[in-house]
Amino acid sequence: MAVITQFVVVREGVEKMTFTSKKEADAYDKMLDVVDSLVPFLSASDVNLDENTCEQLAFYLANNKDELGNLLKGVVKTKAAEPKPKKKTVKQD
Fold this sequence. Notes:
Blueprint (H helix, E strand, L loop, with lengths): L6 E5 L2 E6 L2 H22 L7 H13 L1 H9 L20
Antiparallel strand pairs: 1-2
Protein name: YebG family protein
Organism: Shewanella aestuarii
InterPro entries: Uncharacterised_YebG, YebG-like_sf
């Protein structure tokens, strides 16, 4: 018989997600904390968002918090430069 350790994230008595590592479970729990903070912040804005859209936007922002933080700091992500096509040399006879 195998023993499997699972870490379950529970919010308000509801099981949200199950993980096999504590690190992943803690990261997800922290992300949910950020969502819980963002929902009232977004709801208080002048933008007319219904509850579902507000929650989806909060999840998106929380999942992309590192990139969002950089954008708010003014750090612009540069696209990787595409390699220039090599010029063909033409032999003239």
